[in-house]
Amino acid sequence: MTTNIFGGCACGGVRYAVSGKLRDIIACHCEQCRRTSGHFVAATACRREHFTLLQQSSLQWYSAVPGYRRGFCNVCGASLFFEETGGPRVSIAAGSLDAPQGLHIAAHIYTAEAGDYYAIEPGVPSSSGGAHNVALPE
Ligand SMILES: [Zn+2]
Ligand SMILES: [Zn+2]
Q1: What residues does the CENP-V/GFA domain cover (predicted)?
Q2: How do the domains of the chain map onto residue ranges?
Q3: Which residues contact 59 (CB under 8 A, 6 or more apart)?
Q4: pLDDT at position 129 over 60
Q5: Which ligand minimizes its atom distance to the CA of 93?
Q6: In what order do the strands lie in the sheet with 89-93?
Q7: Which of 43, 49, 42 is nearest to 18 (CA)?
Q8: How many angstroms does the Cα of residue 58 sit away from the middle of ligand 2?
Q9: 107-117, pLDDT tens digit by residue?
Q10: What is the pLDDT of residue 1?
Q11: Range 4-113 classified under CATH 3.60.15.10
Q12: Cα 15 to ligand 1 centroid, rounded to whole Å
C-alpha cells in the first residue's frame, strides 16, 4: 500500500512527502526536545526510503549529539525532523503534517526530564528514559 502523505513548515520553505505508513506518535520530553520545541516533541516517523524532501530551501540541520541531527526551517523556525545520520528512520514532527492521519500518541519517553507545568497523560505507556515498544511500520 502506498499512501502519499504531505507536510511542511509554516512558511513553505520545507515540504516533504511520505509514501508508506507512518508510525504512531511518540512524545519526547527530553531536555533537547523541550528546548528546541519550547514544550515537548510529538513525532511520527517513517522509513527513510519512504521519505522525500520536495522543497528544502530553508532546511537547516543542527546536531546536539554526534551522529544525530534535527532539521528545522531557518526562516519560520519550524522544528521538523530528527534522525540518526544515515539511519533507517526519519522522525517527523506530527504537527507539520498537512492532514489528519489517524495517528495517536502511543508512548511518552524521557518523562524524567519533562517540564513541571503539565501532566503526562494517564493510560499511555511512559518511560523515564528512552525505551518504548512503538514499532516502525514496514
Ligand atoms: Zn518555514
Ligand atoms: Zn527528545
Answers
A1: 5-119
A2: 4-113
A3: 13, 14, 53, 71, 72, 73, 74, 80
A4: yes
A5: 2
A6: 59-62, 68-73, 79-84, 89-93, 41-47, 25-28, 105-109
A7: 49
A8: 23
A9: 999 999 999 99
A10: 45
A11: no
A12: 9
